[in-house]
Amino acid sequence: MEKTVKRGTRTGFTTGACSAAAARAAVLGLVYGAVPETVESLLPNGKVVNFEVHDGRCDASSAHAMVIKDAGDDPDCTDKAHLTADVRLLPGQPGVVLLRGGFGVGTVTMPGLGLAVGGPAINPVPRRNIEENVRAVAQGLLDDQGIEVTISVPQGLDMAKKTLNARLGILGGISILGTTGIVKPYSTSAYRASVVQGVEVAAAIGRDRGHSVVVLTTGGRTEQFVMRERPELPSASFVQMGDFLRYALDTAVKQGLREVVIGGMVGKLTKIAQGETITHANRAEVDTGLLAELASSIGAPADECAAIAANVTARFAAERMEALGLLNEFHTALANKVVSTLTAPDRYGDKFHLHVLVCDFDGHKIAEAQST
Q1: Residue 107 domain flag
Q2: Are 137 and 254 members of one domain?
Q3: Whole-model pTM?
Q4: Backbone angles phi, psi at 51, to 5 degrees
Q5: CA-to-CA distance for 179 and 85, rounded, in angstroms?
Q6: Which residues pair with 107 in a beta bridge?
Q7: 258 band by pLDDT with thresholds 50, 70 and 90
Q8: Region label for 275, one of left (φ > 0), alpha (ψ between -120 and 50) or beta (otherwise)
Q9: Which contacts qualify for 345-352: CB closer than 8 Å, 24 or more apart?
Q10: Domain holding 147: CATH number?
Q11: Can you give the pLDDT at residue 7?
């Protein structure tokens, strides 16, 4: 029997919170002539937290400090990242706090993220939080000069390969993120945020190129499948939404996108068809009774429908339909059910045209359906 792994509950800290703490520690080095070994830093949510500081050093006009990110029990690819702050005085620029991105912090190359193209991928909340912490301890330094803060992440280039940054047009490193400063265990908040950003970028690119469409897929295999089906669309139009359909569709509506394409396989599409818009395995079981109803509607024998209803996986239903020669008809019925569920008046109605594309487990197209 497969063992159930108990998930932890320990919270951690965002890349933004760690960057702010490192910046605060480095500025304290400028003020007092020594970088502290620990620093109390203000989080965006208003809490004050103590961080351990590493590699602290300073001279009369510059300082360096680093905070190692602890993601708690969240499976975050940026866990243990070295969020590093280098600060230096800017003579003749009183009151100025200038924030820059160094090595390992991505550079924004596409519109739609709410960040300047060509600038560092440091989101607005972390930007304000870094500056707030710097100003809180700069004391008299800012009376007659400014402070430049450069955030870098030595491992950022490699870590970025495990994120969606390249698809979002963020190149050369990770993003500095966080709206509260706290990472909640297994919230996958960073991934959810990247899905929202992906839809925003798709909308911005679409406005520039005259196509108001976003393609939502559940993973790499389904994305490659839909890319073959819609080769005319730029890569920025494709967003791997994972389990976060609700956030993707809400953002699509907010951005005024007129066409939404969903590419998927039987398991996730069944979750969507039954009304689940957060499709993680732990949120809801597959409604095999629904699949049995779909099978019955296309003429499958009653005993096969009963077997599907009694099973616990959507894949079993697909395999039985294939054995009966009803694979395409079954998936077409499923795609139509997804369309009717999502375009119901109490869901998204006619806020966008919906096109559902279905592939098999090898990534080959087997069905599609569209809203009218």
Answers
A1: yes
A2: no
A3: 0.65
A4: -120, 145
A5: 20
A6: 120, 171
A7: very high
A8: left
A9: 348/249, 348/253, 351/253, 352/252, 352/253, 352/257, 352/258, 352/259, 352/260
A10: 3.30.2110.10
A11: 46
Judge whether 125 and 109 are in contact, CB under 8 Å: no
3-class DSSP assignment, residue 239: strand
Residue 120 — very low, low, confident or very high, per pLDDT cuts 50/70/90?
very high
Percentage of the chain lying above the pLDDT 90 cut: 69
3-state SS class at 339: helix
Is residue 165 domain-shared with residue 236, that is, in the same domain?
Answer: no
> Distance between CA 162 and CA 94 in Å, rounded?
40
State mean pLDDT over 201-226. Answer: 86
Residue 4 in any domain: the answer is: no
- 36 vs 29: CA distance, rounded Å: 7
Same domain, 232 and 311: yes
Structural domains of the chain, count: 2
115 shares a domain with 239: no
Lowest mean pLDDT among 75-79, 229-233, 261-265, 293-297: 75-79
| C-alpha to C-alpha distance for 264 and 267, rounded to whole angstroms | 8
Classify residue 84 as exposed, middle or buried by CB count within 10 Å of its CB (0-12, 13-18, 19+).
buried
Q: What residues make up the domain containing 334? A: 189-370
Q: Are residues 343 and 270 in the same domain?
A: yes
Q: Based on the domain organization, do 217 and 157 belong to the same domain?
A: no
**Helix (H), strand (E) at residue 101:** strand 97-101
Q: Does a structural domain hold residue 40?
A: yes
Q: Which pLDDT band holds residue 180 (cuts at 50, 70, 90)?
A: confident
Quote the CA–CA distance of 183 and 8 in Å, as a whole number: 13
